[in-house]
Give the backbone structure.
Amino acid sequence: MSTNVRTPLMAANWKMHLSVAEAVSFIAKLHEIVGTPQDREVLIAPPFTHLWPLREAMTAAGFSLSAQNCHWERQGAFTGEVSLTMIQETGCRYVIVGHSERRHIFGESDAWIGLKTAAALVHGVVPIVCIGEKIEEREAGLTEEVLRRQLTASVEGVSLQDPNRLVIAYEPVWAIGTGKTATPQQAQEAHAFVRQWLAKRFDKAVANGVRILYGGSVKPDNVDDLMAQPDIDGALVGGASLQVTSFARIVQFTRSVKNG
Ligand code: PEP
């Protein structure tokens, strides 16, 4: 099902880490090491307070900026929330929605994630929709059922002609921040399932164009094997994106020829 035409997207999710000064020097150092890669896209999702101050450095380096979350309303009495209009104003091209920490620590529902995905598309901000099963769901053989439910809630209702407007991140909850990575085969199986779901919901061209990232303890020493899988189009990296040399090595993955 893979056509090997998708530009790899290597994404850093900094969560609630790094000061603005640390972030500025990280970007300069990363740019020094990796340059502006032509055959892959580098993305950084810093905390909200860093988006505006990082805008220029990110543009100069040729990296893409992403928010880690959003609210679906344009404005209103939503203390502590940030709208997509505001996010767009900071120069963000992407927004992460439905990260497992949002789902499991902050209680975000599938329905909310659907609203955020739809609103991001309306605002022209590319949603990176995170999905993934918990360990007990995997052990009970429910992985595909969970992914289907999450995809249905977040993506089923949207209209999508251009596959570049949507990114899916498959992040098994048991692999996030635990040091346990899905094997390349486990990740590939889940990614192939997601791509088939997209083909059924949209069409083959859209399914072949949407990038599906893997997230869950991606590190310099496992990125090449993961990226060798035909349906893995990039990585969403937490812990290993906080050290510049480690994230630079992840960005500089080498890929053996993909089938497909
Ligand atoms: C994440 O937060 O999306 C993530 C995958 O974290 P880590 O790389 O630390 O597992």
